[in-house]
Automatic annotation (TrEMBL):
The keyword Transferase does not apply. InterPro entries: NAD(P)-bd_dom_sf, SDR_DHRS6-like, SDR_fam. Belongs to the short-chain dehydrogenases/reductases (SDR) family. This is Protein FixR. The gene is fixR. Keywords: Oxidoreductase. GO terms for molecular function: oxidoreductase activity. The keyword Cell cycle does not apply. It comes from the Bacteria. It holds the Pfam family adh_short_C2.
Amino acid sequence: MKQVLVITGASKGIGHATAARFAQQGWNVVNLSRSACDIPGVTNMAVDLTSPTWSQEHGEELQALVGTPQRVSLVHNAAVMTKESAQTITPVTLRRVLELNVVAPAELNRLLIPHMLADSSIIYISSTLGRKAVANTHAYVVSKHAVIGQMRATCQDLAGTMIHTAAICPGFTETEMLREHLGAHPDVLAQITAGIAHRRLVQPAEIAETIWFVAQNPVLNGAVLDANLGQIET
């Protein structure tokens, strides 16, 4: 049975771990990102998903590559996080973040849903910040709230197709994006882990395992799942 994972941003972090998890199970993996995924057997499409014209340039190639396998799992993983507030954000920054975090998933859905049969899945990677907010991460917070809304709309639109969808909200995960956002400030990292019940960062492989579980279980259709090791309420 041909099964295909289409994932954005599999060159590192959660995406890389997810590509590895599905590949271990014999799935064909297609990665869409600017940088290649180094896992043997992964098919890489060099795509800049922040470009408004990417689907016009690569859409037909992607559709031909995927074909109509027995199962497709489409994982919307790629994201960008920027630092700004409501007082400082510019339209350019907001449009760039929304283009990758929200518009690209919508366009991928449009391209690939016609190629998805029953038991396929669409999995959105939101964030803990898709449910709440912190200061100075304005565009990212807005986009991750939108991702959850997009998943819920997708669930309603796909009623009767037997394609299921869910949103996973990782907590603080040990990825390059988080490290770059925090900078070289061990005190900040200590403050973060102090607010996690397990007193450590989530590992990308743990989120990959959650994605794999969701892809296999249509009972989670429409669900929003926290994957954050437990956050201490204050």
